[in-house]
Structure formats: structure tokens, C-alpha cells
Design goal:
With 299 residues, the chain is mainly α. The protein has helices at 34-55, 61-79, 90-103, 107-126, 133-143, 145-155, 160-180, 182-187, 195-200, 216-240, 243-246, 249-271, 288-296. The protein is globular, with a radius of gyration of 19 Å.
């Protein structure tokens, strides 16, 4: 089950009031059960704010980590029913506390999200290179999968098979975001292209820099590397897709759209020749009819 994952914008802008970031699914949209909408919004804003602490503005890495550490302590106070100490986030922890109290949300999943954002800060500061997709999937286990599991918790779905498929969908969306955002991430000093995949295709990370001018033959190999990574994400998404039939009611239909949004983004990547180091493919309003039709006929 996908989630308000701020790192994964593989689909459509959110139509919901008060949610202004481009997201990978309609956060708290009309498809979300009304009784759960406030909890979903609280989760979204909690994750979005933590991501902004890690990624927005011009603060040094040390300051970002200090802010995230403070944010973590505020989460601990929220989970234990204590009032906040820091006054910077008045609109975050009060709604989150209400959601935790009403729905008994598992705190470790919320902590996992902060851990992933801290990792992003540290890895960006150190120029860390991911060795392989196994390492990337470990990151997704904390950056994306927790929110899917939180939503399944809200929907009352907790069996092992559903949790596994939720993780597959969320990890696929995270990977799709990486390959969609190569140009953007490279400019920010975030390098998710795995070393082993680049080596297999005879290319280097420096080839993907905005000011690089690789030879045409090298660009072909670069595109093949991205295509192979997209193929892996596609397979992971298809493995998780049957979860849409397990999640009840309107939430299940929202999940169908999320899955189709991710698959459609992979098609957009293919349409640009998998050259997302040059252009960032994204879904538009005119993709909605395609998504709706495909969601309707999902097996």
C-alpha cells in the first residue's frame, strides 16, 4: 500500500485542500474514506515536514541533523502523550497525536521515516554511493514502506501477505522516483544510481552530470542502465499490485490509481528513451483518463 511518501512523486498532483506538494497519489482525496482522512493528512504533513527539514533551504548538514533530532524527540513526546517542547511545528504533532490516540498508530514506523531522512542528509554530505539495489531497497524499507504499512493499519489490514505486497508497491514507487529524478537528484548531490548497475553497462556516475557531454555510444549505455533499473521496479510493482483487491472499498480504488500511476510513469520514462538525466518525465492531467481506465480493468 502506498502512502504519503514525500520522496516518491511518481504520479499525480494532490487535489486535496491544504496539500500543496506534488505527490505520487491523491493524498486524503475523495477516494480516501472520510473517517480516515484526518489521520492520513496528519501522517502526510508529519512526513512532509521531516523531508523538508532534510532537503529544503540552505542549512548545513549539521543543522539539518540537529533539527531532525529535535523532531524525533518531539515525536517521542507525541507518542507518549506529552505536550511539545519545541514551538516550530504547532500544526504537526497535535493532529498526529489525535491520529495516534484514535488509531493506535505504531510509533516505530514513524521513527523509520525520520531515520531515512537522516540517512539522506548524511549520504549527501559525504557523497555516498549506493553499491547495489539491495542497499537502495534497505533505504526504501524506511523511507517508503512504513507509510504504506501505516495506511494498511488504518484500513485494518495486517496479514503478512498484504504487508509484503504493500512493501513491494512502496519500494517500487521509491525506485521509480529515483529513476525519474536522476537529473534533479544529481544536481543536489544525491546519487542513487547503484554502482554495480553502472559498472555492468560500462558507464560512470559522472556521465549523468548536467554539464557532462558523453559520447553517443556512452549515452546509449546510460539509457540501457536506466532501462534495466526501471524493469526491476516494474516487476516489483506487478508483484505488489494484487494488494489493491485486498484493501476494501474506496481505499482499494485509490491504491489501484497509485499502482497505475507508477506504471504510467515507467511508460513515460520509456517514451523519453530512459534519458531522465536530461528530462524529468511526469504525469499530467490528461493522463487521468488513462489511469482511471486501467484502474477499472485491473485484474
Amino acid at each position: 500500500m502506498t502512502a504519503p511518501n514525500p520522496n516518491t512523486d511518481a504520479s499525480l498532483p494532490s487535489p486535496s485542500a491544504g496539500v500543496g506538494h506534488y505527490e505520487n497519489f491523491p493524498v486524503a482525496s475523495w477516494l480516501c474514506p472520510p473517517a480516515l482522512r484526518s489521520a492520513v493528512q496528519a501522517l502526510y504533513h508529519f512526513a512532509r515536514t521531516a523531508d523538508d527539514l532534510a532537503d529544503e533551504g540552505d542549512a548545513a548538514a549539521e543543522q539539518r541533523l540537529l533539527d531532525l533530532d529535535t523532531y524525533r524527540h518531539e515525536l517521542d513526546r507525541c507518542l507518549t502523550g506529552n505536550p511539545p517542547v519545541d514551538t516550530r511545528w504547532p500544526g504537526i504533532f497535535k493532529p498526529l497525536r489525535a491520529a495516534v490516540t484514535q488509531h493506535h498508530l505504531p510509533g516505530p514506523l514513524l521513527h523509520d521515516l525520520i531515520s531515512a531522512f537522516e540517512q539522506d542528509v548524511r549520504h549527501t554530505a559525504s557523497g555516498h554511493r549506493y553499491a547495489d539495489t539491495t542497499e537502495l531497497l534497505d533505504y526504501a524499507r524506511r523511507s517508503a514502506n512504513p507509510v504504506g504499512r501505516l495506511l494498511l493499519h488504518l484500513y485494518g489490514v495486517s496479514d503478512a501477505a498484504s504487508l509484503k505486497r504493500s512493501d513491494q508497491i512502496c519500494s517500487a514507487l521509491q525506485l521509480i522516483n529515483f529513476w525519474q529524478d536522476i537529473r534533479v537528484d544529481h544536481a543536489r548531490g544525491r546519487h542513487y544510481l547503484p554502482t554495480d548497475a553502472l559498472a555492468r553497462h560500462g558507464v560512470q556516475l559522472a556521465d549523468f552530470a548536467a554539464d557532462a557531454q558523453p559520447e553517443p555510444a556512452t549515452q546509449v549505455r546510460m539509457a540501457r542502465a536506466v532501462a534495466a533499473l526501471c524493469l526491476q521496479a516494474h516487476g516489483l510493482m506487478l508483484e505488489g499490485a494484487p494488494l489493491a483487491r485486498r484493501v476494501p472499498g474506496r481505499a482499494g480504488w485509490e491504491l489501484r490509481l497509485v499502482v497505475q500511476g507508477g506504471l504510467r510513469t515507467l511508460e513515460k520514462l520509456a517514451d523519453c528513451g530512459h534519458r531522465s538525466w536530461k528530462v524529468r518525465p511526469r504525469l499530467r492531467v490528461w493522463d487521468v483518463p488513462v489511469l482511471l481506465w486501467r484502474a477499472l480493468w485491473m485484474p
